[in-house]
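This section describes the prediction task in plain terms. A model, or a person checking by hand, is given the sequence of a single protein chain and must write out its three-dimensional structure as a string of tokens. No templates, partner chains or ligands are provided. The sample shown here is typical of the held-out split.
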Amino acid sequence: MARYTPPEMNVVIPPLIFYILGAALVVAGVVRALSLGRRNPARELDDDDPRRVTARRRHLTFGVIWVLMGLFLIASTAGVLRSRSEVTRVALPPADTAGTPPGPRIRLSPERPTTIEPPATQ
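The expected answer:
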């Protein structure tokens, strides 16, 4: 009796979703940093207390982090940031014969002979 193997499923998420999500992060980060992260003397009647200062600093910091995350998401989706493995991928030459698998070929230079001798045949 044969075992059931489910078909391989590849989920492709459209890049537009990542652009929208990145733009939302950038806009929300800017709004958070500008509206909650700065001191507004018109709204405050008293002097600064330490809790408000730390709250404003936290809002400013996380607003900047949200902006950076959104810009990173947009840049990585657009292909500006590529992984090093994709850039330095080695293209393997096709196989010459049907029985030889494709792979890197080793070509020895006659100017630089190897020091290991092949075994003597008898």
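For orientation: Helices lie at 15-36, 50-78, 84-87.
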